[in-house]
Structure formats: structure tokens, C-alpha cells
Amino acid sequence: MQVLVVEDERRMAELLRQGLEEEGHSVILAMDGKEGLAMAESHAFDAIVLDVMLPGMDGFSIAKKLRASRNQTPILMLTARDATEDMVAGLNLGADDYLVKPFSFDVLLARLRAVSRRGPIPQPVHLQVQDLLLNPASREVARGSRRVALTRTEYSLLELLMRRAGRVVTRESLIEAVWGFDSDVRSNTLDAFIRLVRDKVDVAGEQKLIHTVRGVGYCLRGEQV
Ligand code: CA
Question: What pLDDT, on the 0 to 100 scale, is given for residue 181?
Fold first, then answer.
């Protein structure tokens, strides 16, 4: 396998390189976040071993950027912090698995094999829930034979809900994904936009697809659960 290792601690980076090469893999090392992102974007790797705490750009931001640009290279995250929230955040942003430092090299190899076997997650050409169809390439949305015209913000909200169809998307992740990390967008703004999307997607007489999960967020699904 061609493995990209993004790790700023030189000793750890060298250990990883040496160990992986002994296993027959070829390794490219990046010692800071921006360099790591640039390499991941410019070469096709079979897997990326990505440290969380990095100078330049942290591992979460790198994973998020790669996934946002449809790069599906399997990512194994490394972290010295063992806070579960961090890891959940990492996995939500697109990492495939994570390891808490210190770890044994055998465990790393096993996890790396597992994430790379899973391979890139294929991106469907269309997203579909019941008769609601969204084409990410053309950004066209249709409900049955009816075309749904959405503004940019409305589209982004609907695309995210459709990508996670059947699962609850928290208000925080919707706001963060659509308006960005440090936006001062309030919850009521989100609700107002969701209302606009709903008015266009769930027209009277059609099956309701966008559901409110009180106190948590929203969920797009076909069947009432
Ligand atoms: Ca580090």
C-alpha cells in the first residue's frame, strides 16, 4: 500500500515509516498539517495515518477538507487525547477509525488493514429518499416529476440531510456544515431556513420527509419511525 503519514513528532513519524516499510508498504511523510493536506490532495494514497494535533492545520480540519472535496481515501486518526468527544468529532468529519496514543504497532497495522480493506466509500451519483432526488453534480433537486428550486443555503441543508438520511443531524452539525465553524448563526435562523426547505420539499398532500427531532435536530426519512 501507498500510505501517507501526517505526524509532526519526528520520533513517532520515523517509527511509523520504518514499521510500515518493514511490512512492505511505501510511505510518504508529512510533518505539518498544510503539507499533509496538499499531499493527500495531489496523490492517490491507499490510506492516510493522520495525527490530530499538528502545526499548520489540525487533523480534524484535514479530514473535513478531504471529505468535502470528495476525497474518500481511508483515514486512520492518531490522537494523544483520549476524550471521546474528540474522536466522535473526528469520525463525524470523515475519519474511518482512530487510535489513542500510545498504541502498539501491531494494533496500528491491524486497524490500517481494516480501514483500507473497506476501501473508498463509493459516492452515489444521485441521492434519493422516496421520490425526492438530488443530483450533487448538477445541484438539481426534484420531488417526483416536480422540480424543486432551492437557494444555495437551502440546497446545502437539504444535501446534508439527504447524505445522512435516516439519521438525526444535530442542529450544531447543520449550522457548522452550512455556515462554518465560527459563524454566529443562531438556532432560529436554522429553523427559518429549514422551514423554507420544507415548504418546497414537503408540499401539502405529499409524504412528509423532513422531520423535527425536538431538542436535537432534524432527520430526513421516508418512513415514520
Ligand atoms: Ca502531533
Answer: 66
